[in-house]
């Protein structure tokens, strides 16, 4: 069994939105930018003005690695595992996995789109990414 995230009171709005196949992250009016990972105070300003806003979730592949050996025993059957960092169009970056793509077709800077992966037995939805139409194959 793979370990799954455990929502905290601070991150719960993010996970609740994923369960509805939506992406909500924090925005700081004092700094005029989106923020991710969920937190209680805005970076830079330390203001307590963070508010949750919905984003489309589209972005650009910032970096990735193809794990051809398991990153741990729970992932022994999930190879290759394509670990990635996606930069959302709104600015922040998220650590994730790429799905529905041939590793040979991946390029830094390619456009990616969200994939909502429901884990019904565990009551959580994970956010993964695949190439946007026309980028790395239409899958």
Short précis:
The chain has 139 residues and is mostly beta strands.
Molecular structure report:
By secondary structure, the chain is mainly beta. The chain has two domains: 8-55, no CATH class; 57-139, OB fold (Dihydrolipoamide Acetyltransferase, E2P) (Beta Barrel). Helix content is 6%, strand content 39%. It is built from one helix and eight strands, in the order αββββββββ. It has one helix at 12-19; strands at 23-28, 33-35, 51-55, 59-67, 81-88, 93-98, 111-119, 124-131. The strands form two sheets. It has a five-stranded antiparallel beta sheet, with helices on one face. Strand 7 and strand 8 (124-131) form a beta hairpin. The longest helix is centred in the first third of the chain and has 8 residues, at 12-19. It is globular and about 45 Å long. The relative contact order is 0.19. The mean pLDDT is 92. Residues 52-116 form the ChsH2 C-terminal OB-fold domain.
What structural category do the secondary elements indicate?
Answer: mainly beta
Helix-residue proportion: under 10%
What fold name goes in the CATH topology slot of the largest domain? OB fold (Dihydrolipoamide Acetyltransferase, E2P)
Please compute the radius of gyration using only Cα atoms: 16 Å
Strand percentage: 35-45%
Net shape: globular
Which regions contain 5 or more consecutive residues with pLDDT less than 50?
none
**Can you identify the CATH class of the largest domain?**
Mainly Beta
What count of structural domains?
2
Count of discrete alpha- or pi-helical segments spanning 4 or more residues: 1
DSSP strand tally: 8
Sketch the major β-sheet. 5 strands, antiparallel
CATH architecture of the largest domain: Beta Barrel
* Element pattern in H and E: HEEEEEEEE
Main-sheet strand order equals: 6-5-4-7-8
Overall average pLDDT? 92
Q: Report how far apart the termini are.
A: 27 Å
């Amino acid at each position: 069994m793979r370990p799954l995230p455990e929502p905290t009171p601070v991150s719960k709005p993010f996970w609740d939105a994923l369960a509805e196949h939506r992406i909500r992250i924090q925005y700081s009016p004092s700094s005029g930018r989106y923020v991710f990972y969920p937190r209680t105070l805005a970076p830079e300003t330390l203001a307590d003005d963070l508010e949750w806003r919905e984003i489309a979730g589209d972005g650009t592949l910032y970096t990735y690695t193809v794990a051809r050996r398991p990153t741990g025993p729970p992932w022994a059957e999930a190879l290759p595992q394509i670990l990635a960092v996606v930069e959302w169009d709104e600015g922040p970056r998220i650590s994730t996995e790429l799905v529905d793509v041939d590793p040979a077709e991946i390029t830094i800077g390619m456009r990616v789109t969200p994939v909502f992966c429901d884990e019904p037995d565990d009551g959580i939805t994970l956010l993964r990414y695949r190439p946007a139409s026309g980028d790395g194959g239409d899958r």
